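Per your request, structure below.
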């Protein structure tokens, strides 16, 4: 028989401190069903989890697998053991999510069960510089790539109804990148995302965080970084051919067209295979890419002619034009041409 609890809190935990126990105890007193995933914390945390088991269901990874993997372990358990009609709240184990805020996002998710609810923090002067800067950069990258404006893309306090659980389980990523991938995938699905303001809490300058600035930032941003690398390689080919054709023919428009045909073929192949990892339906993606390439070629050539006519050196104008069109090209390819199969726009 499946569990009929309606409000569930899922907490991934790696080497937690006493704050986890305090949070779990209080949530249990408010009739939440609490699930904690011990993500390979090791012997030093055994006592904490032993005490936690008095108030919560504790699942365990023998070895550390990452926050995303821990969340998906908890979500799989919920899907298997709970009767539909529940609301899931995911919260962090470090005590930086207030009980009142957990209650608020849960209530919002019950009102909007088809939406993903984010507990969004305000990043004021009291927030550690690393966190404030990281969130500002991520907010910009997310908006540029998805077209959706969200204030706090890195919050771990989220809530949603059971109707979204299969979608959450299908999202890739095992570590910190999982939460960003959730936002990318759900906004690509046109799932509504709502933000609820919560208190911003950083204990001891966020010293308890296990976020590795370089490694985990790369995981979060790697799709756009791979796209940037692919674009850079294609641009180098395009620029060198443009220069060569310009020298040999002296014709700006013809040189630009020939260079774009060669570099566009290379760019499509790299993006399909290595950046977005799309498989199958080559005809559809090729046709869409051809339309995009044609539009970009028109814009590219028009801007290039205008800049050259205004006195800008044609080689400098070529660089400026490519920079202007970069983000537009990324957004269209990411959201439409190379979207993952089974994802509708």
């Amino acid at each position: 028989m499946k569990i009929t609890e309606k409000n569930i809190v899922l907490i991934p935990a790696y080497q937690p401190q006493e704050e986890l126990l305090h949070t779990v105890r209080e949530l249990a007193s408010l009739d939440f069903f609490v699930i904690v995933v011990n993500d390979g914390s090791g012997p030093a945390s055994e006592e904490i989890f032993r005490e936690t088991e008095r108030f919560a269901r504790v699942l365990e990874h023998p070895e550390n697998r990452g926050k995303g993997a821990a969340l998906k372990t908890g979500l799989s358990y919920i899907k298997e053991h709970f009767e539909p009609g529940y609301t899931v709240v995911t919260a962090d184990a470090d005590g930086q999510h207030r009980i009142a805020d957990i209650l608020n996002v849960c209530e919002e998710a019950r009102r909007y069960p088809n939406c993903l609810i984010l507990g969004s923090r305000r990043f004021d002067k009291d927030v550690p510089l690393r966190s404030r800067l990281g969130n500002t950069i991520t907010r910009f990258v997310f908006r540029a790539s998805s077209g959706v404006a969200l204030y706090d893309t890195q919050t771990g306090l989220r809530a949603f109804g059971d109707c979204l659980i299969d979608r959450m389980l299908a999202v890739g990523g095992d570590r910190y990148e999982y939460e960003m991938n959730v936002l990318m995938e759900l906004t690509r699905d046109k799932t509504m995302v709502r933000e609820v303001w919560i208190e911003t809490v950083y204990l001891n300058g966020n010293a308890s965080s296990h976020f590795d600035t370089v490694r985990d930032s790369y995981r979060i941003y790697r799709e756009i970084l791979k796209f940037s690398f692919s674009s850079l390689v294609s641009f180098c080919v395009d620029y060198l051919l443009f220069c060569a054709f310009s020298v040999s023919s002296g014709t700006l428009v013809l040189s630009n067209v020939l260079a774009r045909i060669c570099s566009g073929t290379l760019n499509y192949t790299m993006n399909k295979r290595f950046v977005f990892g799309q498989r199958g339906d080559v005809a559809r993606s090729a046709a869409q890419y051809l339309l995009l390439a044609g539009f970009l070629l028109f814009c590219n050539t028009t801007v290039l002619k205008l800049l050259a006519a205004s006195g800008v050196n044609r080689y400098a104008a070529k660089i400026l034009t490519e920079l202007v069109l970069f983000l537009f090209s990324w957004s269209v390819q990411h959201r439409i041409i190379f979207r993952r199969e089974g994802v509708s726009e």
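Confidence is low (pLDDT under 50) at residues 341-345.

Regards,
D.
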